[in-house]
Amino acid sequence: MNAPIVIAGAGVGGLTAALALAQAGKKILLLERAAKIEEIGAGLQIAPNAGRILAQLGLEPELNELGLEPQAINIRDNNARLLARLDLTVARERWGAPFRLFHRADLQQLLLNKVSSHPSVTIQTNARLDIFEAIKNGVNLQYKGTAGTVTLTSAGLVGADGLRSIVRDRMVNAPRDALSYAGSVAWRALVPADEVFEVFRRRESNLWLLPGGHVVHYPLRDGKIINIVVILDAPLGEDAEQEIDGDTLRKRIISHGASDGLAELISAAPLWRRWPFFVRPSLKNWTQDCVTLLGDAAHPMLPFLAQGAAQAIEDAFVLGQAFTASDISAERAFQAYEEIRKKRAQKVVAASRQQGRYFHQAGILALARNVAIGALGGKGMLARNAWLYRR
Ligand SMILES: Cc1cc2nc3c(=O)[nH]c(=O)nc-3n(C[C@H](O)[C@H](O)[C@H](O)COP(=O)(O)OP(=O)(O)OC[C@H]3O[C@@H](n4cnc5c(N)ncnc54)[C@H](O)[C@@H]3O)c2cc1C
Q: What's the ipTM?
C-alpha cells in the first residue's frame, strides 16, 4: 500500500514528526485545522535535548541565526535577591547543543519551510481531522476541509493535535481522561526591549520566585524583544477575561510580594494574554493498531521545566527512527516508538508538576527552598536538571 502516513496537527510536534518521517523515507499528509500554520506571539526555550535533535534533522544553521543563546539563568526571590546564577555557556560542550530562545513564530516558520520543501510531504490547511477507524494495516479517516468532507485511507495516523486532541478523545473515549484545571494561569506578553531597563535586556533568562507564583523573562530576536510570562496560582473562576492590562497585573503580582523592579517590568506591557493550565491523566497506551499519539496529545505537561515542545521534538525524532528498518509496518513502528518514549515523557510530566509546586511555595517552605537553592548554587541547580539535557 502506498498510502501516506497522516499526521493530524502542525504544531511543533506535528511539523517535526513530518520532517523526521519524510527523512526516514515515508510519504506524509499533514493536516492542520487552522487556515494558516502560525504560532502565537510568545517565546519558546529550546533546551539542549531538543536542540541536538533539530540539528540532526539539518536545521543547525537556521537555529543559530534565529535563536538567542542566553548566557545564564538568574534565579531570584520576590525581593530581587539573587539566589543562584546558572552558567549556560557550558551547555554546548556538555550536552552537544546550547540553550536557545526563540520567538515561537520563527521556529514554527523554520519547521514549516523545511517540511513544505520536502517532496514526500503534502500539507493541507483548513483540514480538521474528524473521525477515523483502524483497518488491517491502515486507517480509514475523514477530515473536514473547505470543499467539504474528504475520506481517505492512510498507512497510519499520528495524533499530534495538542492538549485537546480529537485523536486521543476518540481513542480513549472515557470520562476519566477529561481535562482538569491545574490551578495556575499564565499571563504572557512581548515588549520592545527599548521600553525596559537595561538590566532586563541582558542576554540571560530570569526566573523570579513568588509566593504562589513565578515570573520568567528573557530576550528574543537578537535582544530586540523581551518575552515575559507571569504564572500565578488562582481558582479557575477568578479570571474570566482573556486579556488584562499591565496595571491590573502589576497590582496582582505586588499582592504576591513582587519587588518594585519586577512590578515596573510588568507595567511595561500594556496588554497580557491569559493561558490557564490544564492536565490530563497519564495514558496507559499511546498506540492502538495503526494510530498513535505524539507531543501534548500523548503527554500534556505543565510548562515549569520548559520541556513540552522539547519532548514533542524527542517524540518526533524517535518516531522517525522507528521507521528506518525497511518494510516495518506502521503498527510495529508506533509500538516501538511508544516503548522507547513513554517512560521518559511520563517522568518529565511528573517532574514538571513537582517543579511547579517547588517554585510556588510560600512562607517557611519558600524560605527553606531559597536557602537550599543558595546552597546548591548555579552549578548544583544546573546539575539538578542534567538528566533532561544529556544524550
Ligand atoms: C506558558 C507556556 C510556556 C511554555 N514554554 C515552553 C518552553 O519554553 N519550552 C518548551 O519546550 N515548551 C514550552 N511550553 C509547552 C509547549 O508550548 C507545548 O508543549 C508544545 O507547543 C506542544 O506542541 P504540540 O505540537 O504537541 O501541540 P500544539 O502546539 O498544541 O499543536 C497542535 C496542533 O494541532 C492542530 N489541531 C488540533 N486539532 C486538530 C484536528 N482535529 N485536525 C487537524 N489539526 C488539529 C492545532 O491547530 C495545532 O496547530 C510552554 C507552554 C506554555 C503554556
A: 0.99
